[in-house]
Design a protein that fits this description.
heterotrimer, A mainly alpha (392), B mainly alpha (260), C alpha+beta (355), B: 260 residues, mainly alpha, 11 helices, 0% strand, globular, C: 355 residues, five-stranded mixed β-barrel, 24% helix, elongated
């Protein structure tokens, strides 16, 4: 008894370091990204007193004296111009007019010679509940703005969800594009990879080793190297164009780079092993005598394939396709290097929001979308690959 | 007959598709011209010189070695220990834990990068080797776990029981039976960890400062901004390094096997 | 002979499943005891507990008078031979056998000598530098045996070691192990599900069923004097006939069968008049003849089938109410199906078993 529990204790001790490490440096960053997607402290940070007072407001009656006093105090206390700018931008995007209103209010409050009695005296707009409503809504530390914007949705003045205007609706286009490119790549990989795996599984000896080696070699080489190789080959004066012109197939060089074609070619090359290997590993579990048995029973080779080999290998094709698709939607390097501006995938946009414009909210929101899609597809893949052949 | 020819043609074309790009890029490392085209006017080693003497490239190589080694050590230790712990069937949520260990392979690197950048900033680890090593370890450790778990699964549990019955205490069993039998997996895992670190661009984009630019990062910028045959030379180095390490592992494995 | 190993009220639960139930067993020094039973009967679990690989849920295991429950495996000094051999794949045959000696800190020169002696004992001296993967199943088994014996353990445990070998090799190894036992005077606990193996090799056989020992005795005892129906059916082949006790006279009882016939039989244990019982009659003890004769017990039967099995003739008979099987020697007559014959056997050839 104690031997077993000390063994368990030892095992837990061995597991612990990696577990702690991953929880701290893998799970936590993901959570932090997800929380960024929904966090919105721009207004709350600067208006703590107003937050307290506004809690009791009924959102319909005109602003009270305590409300105005709290807001004035908060605004006077602001000393960080950038934070103020963020807040104003935030409020303005919820209700236009805030920029001018705030500008007028802050300069009036800064005027020490002539301190205003209350906000309404600075500007009549403070009388109306609408502006206060905007502030009250923006005070929540959580928001779904980013998540909605990630799908090109937003809330209108009444608070219900609607589509954003076309000039702000770029995310959905990019999401669709990402999935479309991934689908094309998956399809290409399946068309090339499935027959390749079938041929490899049917051979033996050096021929099979050669075919497998050709698949494993790219896997062993760095992704960057492979992408760089395609970058060089697909150029206008690159090897491929030179070859095609040399054998007379074309006259003028083909545009193969910085466009969709190049991206598909390069990504197919990179992801092909992920399609071939799962299919191959399923194929070799199929007894070699099945096809000859089908033939002896009178089946034409094509029918034998359709009714025997295809159903049995479908699991491998599904696994491979999922694997390729999941990898493709998350790809960054290959589209970034080989694609044109119209081929940027969702990962580029995330990177842009994060490192380019420091909009962590949007970066996080799009990241959440990508993460959820990836995890959903992966759970399907995991279930597929854990269904062993004998268990029907 | 035509079926056979069709199959052979298809197989050959696909093999070419898979392998040709890698082979095509290698000779360009030795071109003397400044543009990356064939035919190669004359052979020269100038691009390798640039790699080893130009500041940016040289530092990138050094950084890659430092970070790669650090990642390999950290990932191999963490991953091997965890794989050994995972063998115990009595652990609660064993399957969930194992899935967690493998998840970094699945999650897109950009997503992880966004989260890590903020986290490392909070710990003050941006612009440091340690930060990059940690980030690389997160994505490298699943490979170690898969490799070592595979090797451990191939060990017949009875062999360890037999060793105990013959008088070996648990630490001795680990030292003389379990570890030697798992070593091929540990070595493969270590090589994969190194290769992963060497190749990792996206995470590095987010967490590395200008002083920790790795070779991969440098190559990436170079392709985007300033394309030159130095890239082909760097690619050549990459391939040579990976092949060399792979050979070292294969040779050491067969040497270990023979010496017993 | 002194008691050497003792299992005292051993119980083992795996979760809610009881695998060994309140088991008592005593083994003398130098004895060869087989633990015999079907899969899942608890025999292997008992062996694992003796080796220290498993812990009993309750009860004590005593070795030479001392309880060893808390002693870890690597200090129990028992040689274990597994069904799957469990040789170290990354070491040569010689290194495998040297391993337990290294664990005991024996000097290198001495190790070399003892490894050589061990290999001579199993006749594999030429293979000292080979790897296990280069050996046949039988050779691997002999290496495993040599490894378990080289450090002269107090007890040798064997868990179905011959199960993976083919018939002829198995029978040869049975004799080899028996021979080693005699020569070295080892205490051996041997697990098997093959009853003929147990009968061939053991001093005593413990018959296991569902976590309990149904009977323990010499091979002759468990074969000729089965105590329970399970033992009678598990060991060898038997005819089981139902009946009711009419009278008991000392070591014999008169049993009335459903057909009305009366059988006089030897009795194991005590039975009372009126008790429903089984009669166990070994097929090879039945004589067939066309005349009634004057045996104590005679049943009228008809031959339904007769199969020549090389070393004996197997005859299927049908009595008024139940089928019977008889095994006749090769010199006996063949009775064609349909012949009416008398099946005769003495009282000692028959056994009354309480159900």
């Amino acid at each position: 008894m104690s031997a077993a529990s000390s063994r368990t204790g030892r095992s837990l001790l061995l597991l612990a370091p990696l577990l702690v490490f991953l929880v701290g440096f893998f799970v936590w960053p993901l959570f932090s990204m997800m929380s960024q997607a929904v966090s919105d402290p721009a207004v709350l940070r600067l208006l703590p007193r107003s937050a307290e007072v506004l809690r009791d407001w009924d959102r319909a009656s005109p602003p009270t004296i305590p409300m105005q006093a709290a807001l004035m105090e908060d605004l006077r206390a602001v000393d960080d111009d950038q934070a103020l700018g963020d807040m104003v931008r935030r409020l303005n995007s919820a209700r236009s007019g805030f920029r001018t209103l705030m500008g007028k209010t802050t300069s009036a409050l800064a005027d020490t010679d002539n301190p205003p009695a209350d906000l309404v005296s600075i500007d009549k707009r403070w009388e109306k509940p609408e502006f206060w409503l905007a502030i009250a809504d923006a005070l929540s530390p959580y928001t779904d703005r980013n998540l909605l914007a990630a799908l090109d949705l937003g809330r209108n003045a009444a608070g219900s969800i609607e589509h954003l205007p076309p000039d702000q609706s770029v995310n959905r286009v990019i999401l669709v594009r990402t999935f479309w490119i991934a689908a094309l790549v998956t399809f290409a990989c399946a068309c090339i990879g499935y027959p390749y795996a079938i041929i490899a599984a049917s051979l033996s000896g050096w021929k099979r080793d050669l075919m497998l080696g050709a698949v494993l070699l790219p896997l062993w080489t760095s992704l960057l190297v492979r992408t760089a190789a395609w970058f060089i080959l697909l150029q206008e004066q690159g090897l491929i164009n030179d070859l095609l012109r040399g054998i007379g197939l074309i006259d003028a060089p083909l545009a193969l780079i910085f466009n969709r074609t190049g991206v598909i070619i390069a990504m197919t090359h990179v992801l092909l092993p992920f399609m071939v290997l799962p299919i191959y590993s399923v194929l070799i579990t199929i007894p070699k005598n099945l096809m000859p048995a089908a033939a002896s029973l009178g089946a034409h080779p094509l029918r034998a394939f359709l009714r025997v080999l295809l159903p049995l290998s479908l699991r491998g094709v599904a696994s491979g396709s999922l694997l390729v698709f999941i990898s493709a939607i998350g790809y960054y390097i290959t589209p970034a290097l080989i694609g044109g501006p119209g081929d940027q995938m969702i990962s580029s946009i995330i990177a842009f929001y994060a490192t380019g414009s420091a909009n962590w909210g949007m970066a996080g929101a799009l990241g959440v979308v990508l993460l959820v899609a990836t995890l959903l597809l992966y759970s399907v893949y995991a279930r597929l690959s854990s269904d062993e052949p004998g268990r029907r | 007959m035509p079926m056979k020819i069709a199959k052979a043609t298809f197989a050959t074309l696909t093999i070419l598709f898979l392998v040709a790009p890698l082979i095509a890029i290698l000779p360009l490392a030795f071109t003397s011209s400044v543009i990356l085209t064939y035919p190669i006017p004359s052979w020269s080693l100038r691009w390798f010189e640039e790699l080893f003497f130009a500041d940016a490239w040289r530092r990138a190589i050094v950084n890659s070695l430092i970070i790669g080694t650090g990642t390999t050590l950290l990932a191999t230790v963490l991953g091997t220990a965890a794989s050994l712990g995972l063998r115990n069937r009595l652990i609660l949520f064993r399957g969930t834990v194992r899935t967690l260990f493998l998840l970094p392979m699945v999650v897109p690197a950009v997503v992880l990068g966004v989260g890590m950048q903020v986290l490392l900033a909070r710990f003050g680890l941006t612009n440091s080797y340690l930060g990059v090593i940690i980030a690389h370890t997160v994505v490298a450790v699943p490979f170690v776990v898969v490799s070592v778990t595979g090797a451990l699964a191939g060990i017949d549990e009875r062999v360890e029981l037999a060793a105990q019955s013959l008088g070996a205490s648990p630490p001795t069993v680990f030292r003389r039976i379990t570890l030697p039998l798992a070593m091929p997996g540990v070595l493969s895992g270590a090589v994969l960890a190194f290769a992963t670190s060497l190749d990792e661009v996206v995470l590095t984009l987010f967490v590395a400062g200008p002083n920790q630019r790795t070779l991969a990062r440098q190559m990436f910028s170079s392709i985007r901004e300033n394309i030159s045959p130095a890239i082909a030379a760097a690619a050549f180095l990459f391939i040579v390094a990976t092949v060399a390490i792979g050979l070292v592992v294969v040779l050491s494995r067969s040497m270990l096997a023979k010496s017993r | 002979m002194a008691e050497f190993i003792r299992f005292d009220r051993i119980t083992k639960f795996y979760g809610p499943l009881c695998v060994v139930e309140n088991l008592d067993l005593s083994i003398d020094k130098g004895e060869f005891v087989s633990l015999l039973g079907p899969s899942g009967s608890g025999k292997t679990t008992l062996l694992m507990m003796l080796a220290g690989f498993e812990q009993p849920t309750s009860g004590n295991i005593l070795l030479d008078g001392t309880a060893i429950n808390a002693v870890p495996t690597h200090r129990r000094d028992m040689g274990v031979v597994f069904q799957s051999y469990a040789l170290f794949p990354h070491m040569s045959v010689g290194d495998n056998i040297a391993f337990p000696l290294q664990m005991r800190g024996i000097a290198k020169a001495e190790i070399g000598a003892r490894v050589k002696r061990a290999l001579d004992m199993v006749q594999l001296s030429a293979l000292v530098d080979r790897r296990p993967s280069q050996l046949s199943g039988g050779q691997q088994q002999r290496v495993a045996l040599a490894r378990a014996l080289v450090f002269e353990p107090r007890v040798v445990l064997m868990d179905e070691p011959l199960g993976a070998l083919d018939k002829q090799l198995r029978e040869q190894m049975q004799l080899d192990i028996r021979d080693l036992h005699r020569r070295l005077g080892l205490t051996i606990v041997f697990v098997t599900h093959d009853q003929s193996e147990a009968l061939t090799m053991s001093d005593r056989v413990a018959v296991f069923n569902k976590g309990k020992i149904e009977q323990i005795g010499t091979p002759r005892q468990v074969y000729d004097e089965p105590a329970t129906r399970f033992v009678a059916e598990f060991i060898g082949e038997t005819n089981l006939v139902e009946g009711v006790v009419e009278a008991v006279q000392g070591a014999e009882a008169t049993v009335r069968l459903a057909s009305g016939a009366q059988i006089v039989s030897a009795v194991s244990g005590t039975v009372a008049s009126g008790q429903p019982v089984f009669l166990s009659i070994r097929p090879e003890r039945v004589d067939l003849s066309e005349t009634r004769g004057d045996a104590r017990n005679v049943l009228e039967t008809e031959v339904t089938d007769s199969v020549y099995q090389g070393d004996h003739l197997r005859v299927q008979l049908q009595n008024a109410t139940h089928p019977l099987i008889a095994k006749l020697g090769r010199r006996s007559r063949e009775f064609p199906p349909g012949t009416r014959v008398f099946a005769a056997f003495s009282a000692g050839d028959c056994r009354v078993i309480a159900p």
